[in-house]
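Late entry, written up from scratch paper. The run itself happened at the end of the previous shift, but nothing got recorded in the book at the time, so transcribing now.
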Amino acid sequence: MNKIMIIEKIIENIENVIYGKRSAVEKIIIAFISGGHVLIEDVPGIGKTVLVHALAKSINCEFKRIQFTPDLLPSDITGISVYNQKTGDFEFKVGPIMSQIILADEINRTSPKTQSSLLEVMEERQITVDGNTYKIKEPFIVLATQNPIEFEGTFPLPEAQLDRFMMKIRIGYPDEEYELVMLKRYKEYNPLNGLKPVAQPEDIIYLREVANKVYVDEKIERYIISLIKATREREEILLGASPRASINLLKCSQGRALLFNREYVTPDDVKSLVHSVLSHRIILKPEYRLKGVKSEEVIDKIISSVPVYGVAKNV
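Output as recorded:
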């Protein structure tokens, strides 16, 4: 199957259950084919769980949902060694993290110790239990959710954990017409139940290989570096983006170019992803937060102030 046909079939299949949210779906697909993870920050009931489940069904991947609660332990995620009285040996019972698509639901409701158990697996695609290392099956992605308006009983993700997410996105409420379509579909049956695979895990691995070969001009690389550098120099920002952000922005831009059937990255690819890649990585100074300044506003200023030297707007 043609690489563009694969991507389009996956997106169209997900849109059978998630209506009018193509931009959010595209960004998740970009992150998946770029080898990254996604933090979905939005209010309850707008379809975060359904979207992730639809993605897993569309690609025929192993899917596990982990409901993060205050009493959740690291071993509940990674697995645990259990003594077998018959054999006299310890046997490793795998945890839900040993799947391909992980929904980490309400990740900010569990303790920092449990949150940190995801660090190794998100970065290195492996877990270590009792001195033994276990590889995660590819393709692998963690899609974590958190509620932006409810803070009681939550543990904000530390910067080290946030930096592991390639993107942070919001889905938002549907438009009136799309919500009407949703009501008509769901009043008869749940369309998620009838969703069939349109691709295989091997297709995602193939798309990752193709995305890695998308050409990035040195001027685009310097543009990315300039954007990241600007986050470290702005007066409003206390903590700027890390070098990992530079890599993530580059990889996402390659993924977006592939999504639009191009063999090269343009400045518009980079600009369209700056908010998603950087908004969760910068920390504003307290005095600016008190004034009501948002990180998105500062990122807008950065985009408008950083030029793309020697490259036309739509190359």
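The mean pLDDT is 91.
(Scratch paper discarded after transcription.)
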